[in-house]
Amino acid sequence: xxxxxxxxxxxxxxxxxxxxxxxxxxxxxxxxxxxxxxxTAADVAAVSDTLDSTTIxxxxxxxxxxxxxxxxxxxxxxxxxxxAEEVGGGDKxxxxxxxxxxxxxxxxxxxxxxxxxNKVQKDIRLGHSKTVExxxxxxxDGGPLSGVTVCDAGCGTGCLSIPLxxxxxxxxxxxxxxxxxxxxxxxxxxxLLKGKDELSxxxxxxxxxxKDLESLDGKYDTVICLDVLxxxxxxxxxxxxxxxxxxxxxxxxxxxxxKTFYYDLLKRVGELFPxxxxxxxxxxxxxADVERALQKVGWRIRKRGLITTQFYFSRIVEAxxx
Length: 322
Hints:
By secondary structure, this protein is an alpha/beta fold. It has 11 helices and 7 strands. It has helices spanning 42-51, 61-71, 76-87, 91-100, 102-111, 119-141, 161-166, 178-193, 234-247, 261-271, 287-296; strands at 149-153, 170-175, 207-210, 220-226, 248-256, 299-308, 313-321.
């Protein structure tokens, strides 16, 4: 993808029924200016304070090579290793620590309705909202969700779990962060009960649990994992995709940051500006690698989508058993 071209989102959303919150509202599709997107996860949040009053210049052909040469001299891996050592573990411990502390406060604002966000965070909010909206459209295209069991793996603050419950789905939601789970449960009660003692007929509160992806078990009609694979290198992502597929009876929906030369290069740029808070390690994944991982366990991709904004990009795939 050339940075000099204008980026469009190839997905056209239909208006969803009963739009109750920003996560689920129809938003006008905007053309993204020629500013390259960075990442779908905490690396963007970490550099957002630095980038708030500036933008990254469009990179021409000759300057790409020059920038690549400069980046080859940097060592973001050393910074990441230091983060892991400080919390006494590897990637999982860093992610848990981040999203229970600084990361929780930051992403609660991004996923929420507050105006206390900068331009980059607002753009990420829009991108994530589009991802949730598109996933809901994928699900509803298959028919009503009333009584359908859904595993929301890596639920965050409930951005997807709540719209699912509003459609009558039976939702099992989990996240590695206890802070995120507590916030998701609080928001679910506020939005679904709306001050009443009982839920409306046909609705069930999501069941929220503190669990990492490896600890998930059970069987569900549909398993959904949005923007979580960015915390897994491809070697571990293959096993995690296989595990998630083993939990699903009919459908598995994944979103991940696609690995391309330009996106990978811009991720490296972001790593040079860690910002005031520590970022988690971010991994991009080639769509072909994700597809191969699904094929190994007898699944095929039925639908594909791509969400792009200035600072958020996410590939969505819906897979079904062969």
